[in-house]
Amino acid sequence: MAKWTPSHEAPEPLEGPVVATITGGTILWFVLFLVQVPFYGWFADRELDWWVWTCLAGAGLGLIGIWYVRRRDAALRRAASGPGTPGAPGGGGGSGGGPAGPGAPAGTAPAAPAGPAAP
Question: What is the pTM of this model?
């Protein structure tokens, strides 16, 4: 098993403009889809129409990727801002400070308890 043991530490992961990279790839997939649509008949005659749908799937998955990396970047920024920031997980909330909590805007009342539903 010694030959599978790494001889050096793994490098740090590269961080870059992830949102821009995913957005560029999504645009590229969508442009490829648009370029191929006029030739759909040619692709279908040769049983290559899966190329067209692959480009559309790449664009759709790219939209999901943009949503994901934007939320990930926002979560990383919130985590880096520290636990004392209101609205951040583990920060700003707690006991005391009134019925609506210390981080709630003025004039905010707590939600009323749910009662039995009317028939």
Answer: 0.58
Q: How confident is the model at residue 2, as a pLDDT?
A: 66
Nearest to 58 by CA among 91, 83, 25: 25
CA–centroid distance for 37 within its chain: 29
Residue with tokens 């001889």: 7
| CA dihedral over 12, 16, 21, 23, signed as positive or negative | positive
pLDDT tens-digit readout, 66-87:
999 999 999 989 999 877 655 5
Contact 88, 80 (CB under 8 A): no
